[in-house]
Amino acid sequence: MTKYADQDLNEGWEFKIVRSTRAINGVRFYTLCQEEARNGWELVEKFDDSRIRFKRSIQWRSSPPDPQIEPYRTTYGISETKVVLLALGIILAITVAAAIFITTL
Q: Any residues with CB less than 8 A from the CB of 29 and at least 6 apart, and which?
């Protein structure tokens, strides 16, 4: 992993890591980088297919953000909470369907 350079830390840069529950590669990676660039974020490094680090000058804080993209978002796509809730909902639906099927026998 790339370390933060003293120059980056002392010269007014801010950093963030964007995470995703799905792989960020190919078109998704390109789209994410394009969206982040609209708010001044530059790609620093891709840790793996689910974590990407960006940086931008703190001067961007005074610029109006792109109204479609939250400049400080740290998740891309569906959140981990939504994935867990979706999985629990599916399990519950299967359990209810199985219980109904068994009681009708």
A: 46, 52
**Domain of 14, in residue numbers:** 6-77
Beta strands in 1-105 (DSSP E): 13-19, 42-48, 51-57
Residue 97 is assigned to a structural domain of this protein: no
pLDDT 10s per residue in the chain (105 long)? Answer: 677 777 777 888 999 999 999 999 999 999 999 999 999 999 999 999 999 999 999 999 998 988 899 999 999 988 778 888 988 999 999 999 998 888 887
Q: For the CA atoms of the chain, what is the radius of gyration?
A: 20
Any alpha helices (H) in the chain, and if so which ranges? 6-10, 27-37, 80-103
Distance, CA of 71 to CA of 57 (rounded, Å): 12
Answer for the pair 43, 99: CB distance below 8 angstroms, yes or no: no
Place of tokens 């001044």: 40
**Per the structure block, which two tokens stand in for 85?**
């809730």
